[in-house]
Predict the structure of LRC43 protein.
Amino acid sequence: PGSISATFQEYLQHLGLQDFPCGLGSWNKSRCNARRSSRAQPAGLEALPPGEESPEVLLELLRDQHSPWALPSDCSPQAQRLREVVVLAPELLRGSRVSQLVKSLRILDKGVEEVDEGLLQFQQLEELILSANHISRVTSAHLPRTLKVLELCYNDVSDLQDLCAQPPPQLQHLGLGYNQLCGLSQEKHLTVDFWPSLVSLDLSFNSLTDLLGLVSQLTTLQNLRILLLQGNPLALIPPYRGFLVDSLPKLSILDDIYIWPEERQQFQGLAGQPELIRSEARLVVSIGEMKGLPNPEDFQQLELGCEGPLIACRYCVTYQF
């Protein structure tokens, strides 16, 4: 429980790959036995035994929306393709051969906590979407080398060291938005040494603060075209967008906004002025109305030396950000 392997097995059970019209059973027994035999005759030369169905009939039961074996309309196209492949080649259910057919794996909001070693069974996997889970650590040795897309948004990732130990060399998109990345040590993991093929990087809504340090690393990613950094404290720096646009001349999209040539021309030369990047901010707080406090004007009417006690009031105001 809590691992990708366990969640995938539950997913397979939900698809009913072991049951009619998929899987191995009396409905396709002779066909499976014929494939094992070296003397099997070519398809179509032999009539089906009683009680068995042809692959065409079985596929129709899966594809007909009115069939009791049809998947709900909100299921992914991959789920339908997987069931059809198992109908045509039910012997793939033996062992872990089914996982070798999967090129895209989406596990969203399933309580996954561990990216376990069982993921290596997916030898053809190119896209892995694990958003909205409880993953805090990703061991890169457990990721298939064929991976091109890795999405980890809305998790608990706070450190990239394990992910960058042996990252997939062909990875083109890395999604780390809405995690807990912070401090000055994460930027060193975002260089071409770890991600030579990276085209798209999502670091939005973390706690990154070192804009200069981050940019110095991102400039090594020669293939980077899409970058998301909105929601980080460093995005509050006034010259933030202009500094990035001028520092990364090959970037096409920053924070979901296309970079037009006019904007690049406008910010030309800003990358050579790092002194404009200050780690400070000015806040202006305006209080519109306060209730329940004495009016200071009432005390201004008092004259020095007058009889009666003089009442002084102090107030402490705390701002929480």
In short: Residues 38-45 have pLDDT under 50 and may be disordered.
